[in-house]
Amino acid sequence: MDPETKNKLILLHAALMVFVWMLAVPVAMGMNMLARKKGKTWGPKVHMLIMTTAGFVPFTISAFIAFGISGQLKLKPHSGIGTALSIGVWSQVMLGTVNHLLFRYRRKHHCLPPKRPWNNHVHIWLGRLLLFMALINIPLGMRIKKATMPLYILYGIWLLVLAIAFLWLAFLSEKKQDTVEPDKEVEKMAINEAKA
Q: Quick check: keyword Membrane in the entry (predicted)?
């Protein structure tokens, strides 16, 4: 691969990863936290939609670009963290899907647990860990490309904005929701079965 093409692919990889980890993932996590704090049920759906379209798809494209450019597994910090992030993200997608299917099953059969189940806690804490790792990995990538000081300053300012937003969400008083809204499709099926 010629150096000019390789450089363009590296910049595309960087742009996609910055978009995913500094915008899409924080927005998806923040929207879900906000909905939960306000007692709204739209949070998980918005989270899944953003994570699938603006998170997982660009992340996967960017990861394949990185693996294609390097051609091998490198044990350098940026590459190692990036590989761990890839494994973690694809695991998160599977875990999130399982969590969603379990929730729908439990809601349909009226056996929702009184508190958040352990598998949800694993998904939440693994997501936080992956975000933290990615936010460490971004400046490592910037260092490889010899980014200028203004880029580091912008990165730091944006991290401060994210930290303030997440602290605000964390300390926002939570509106308790007594019940989960029933699934409209399940209700319709139950009514139709009762009529038959």
A: yes
